[in-house]
Amino acid sequence: MYKQYNINIFHKIIKYLILGLVILLSFKYIPDLNINSIDQIMISSIGSITFALLDMLSPTIYINELPKN
Q: What is the value of pTM for the model shown?
């Protein structure tokens, strides 16, 4: 059980880091004006932290199909 829990935490951390990297790269290459590196890092970390909080606090929605009679 603990191994599955650790793998789940590891997957979530990797997911948040990838999201932060995507946000960082999009702020680096998309705008025409240059943005400071510190500002890029702050914006990407805020985005990944917000995603992590929403992922932990929002309920997971499961769709169960009712059997057809």
A: 0.69
Inside any domain, residue 14: no
* Spatial contact of 42 and 20, defined as CB atoms under 8 Å apart: no
Q: Give the number of domains in the chain.
A: 1
Tens of pLDDT, residues 34-51 = 889 999 999 999 999 998
Give the integer Cα–Cα distance in Å for 25 and 13: 18
Q: Degrees (nearest 5) of the Cα angle 43, 38, 45?
A: 30
Domain carrying residue 33: 22-53
Within a domain: 59 = no
How is residue 36 written in tokens? 């400071």
